[in-house]
Amino acid sequence: MTMSHAITAGFVPLLDSALLVVAKEKGFAAAQSIHLTLVRERSWASIRDRLAVRHFDVAHILGPMPIACNLGLSAPAPKMIVPMALGLGGNAVTVSAALWQAMAGEGATDDLDARENGVALRRVIARREGEPLRFGVVHPYSGHNYELRYWLAASGVDPDRDIEIVVLPPPDMGDALAQGLIDGYCAGEPWNTFGVLKRGGHLATVKAAIWRSSPEKVLGVNARWAETHPETLAALLVALHQASAWCGKLENREELAHLLAQPGYVGRDAELLLPALSGNLPVGGGVVQNIGDFFVPNAKAATFPWKSHALWFYTQMVRWRQIGHTAEHQQVAAETYRPDMYRAALKTLGLAMPSASSKVEGALAVETPVGSSGALTLGPDGFFDGGRFDPDDVDAYIQAQRIG
């Protein structure tokens, strides 16, 4: 068979690169006549740089990063679009053994409850003297930075005054924790499991507890490349969707762990990858908690690029003073995510897809069938503090955060 499309895609060694890896390794890309070349990078900054100079056509990338690029916050950067998400959830907050001991003394428990453990952390910080606690995140324009800050702020901790936040590549987090360079971090898997099992860390909470069914990595696409290769991009979206369905099947999780464990991909033992894939997370001290929706590659429209996700990320950029709020900035953020391209590429597959392009985030308390066919289920999607984000009233949300 002749390959008619060549695509070079960048990725960082994380569990949520799974859709790209599976599209290549299980033949879904080849079936769409795509010759897919995957290139591993250590950091998100190098992913952005190589998209800018056209070494990559597309990449596994942080959800907020293409928005930051389009807003001119992250140079050098190409104009980017997001025609697909690569799953929901998948992050956790890991703390050092010493910090966990102090938190446990203030009422923190192994059940990863965002509210109780956040209050415990606030009490530890209030009693602390000397140097502030230091937490690592993977990039300033990352879901990790925003969910960590959201959790802290809703727990009564000012993330700009009460602690220090530093940026480190995901693979370095566990070692930095063990060496005492940081007291905790928010990162994707397998780097929390690695921190707990190999570096003496303890989970404090998980993204699924801070904001259920929340966005994480996306397919970032160089907009110029997308304009000149529409058929190639559509074929890639089909292959990635089929890969997401494969990843979503429980009976494939063991094979998925072994695929990702290969040296060219995540390059860590399958035993470190399986906990997050199965939702059975080691918390620390030999305790394991089952988090049913820890990493969601396919269910709940997990690959749909909701404009409400893009706009929530934008509100956090405004909240933490990365950018000023204007109607133009808001429009740039909303137009970065392209559900129209997702629908156009996948319509021939007869999938149940959302008919709306935005939704009120935090509105679904339970799993809810949506759409005329009822074949699609969304939610629960709540923020732990009961917050709601209405993408039709961004101004009010930003104002409320200022007051908060």
Index terms:
single chain, 404 residues, alpha/beta, five-stranded mixed β-sheet, 18 helices, 41% helix
Structure characterization notes:
By secondary structure, this protein is an alpha/beta fold. Helix content is 41%, strand content 19%. The chain contains 18 helices and 16 strands. A 5-stranded mixed β-sheet has the order 2-1-3-11-4, sandwiched between helices. A 5-stranded mixed β-sheet has the order 8-7-9-6-10, with helices on both faces. Strands 5-14 form a two-stranded antiparallel ribbon.
Low-confidence stretches: none
The amount of beta strand, in percent, is: 15-25%
For the largest beta sheet, what order do the strands appear in spatially? 2-1-3-11-4
Report how far the terminal alpha carbons are from each other.
Answer: 59 Å
**Mean pLDDT level:** 95
Sheet with most strands: 5 strands, mixed
What structural class results from the helix and strand content? alpha/beta
* Shape estimate: globular
Number of helices: 18
Q: How many β-strand runs?
A: 16
What is the CA-atom radius of gyration, in angstroms? 20 Å
Level of helix content?
Answer: 40-55%
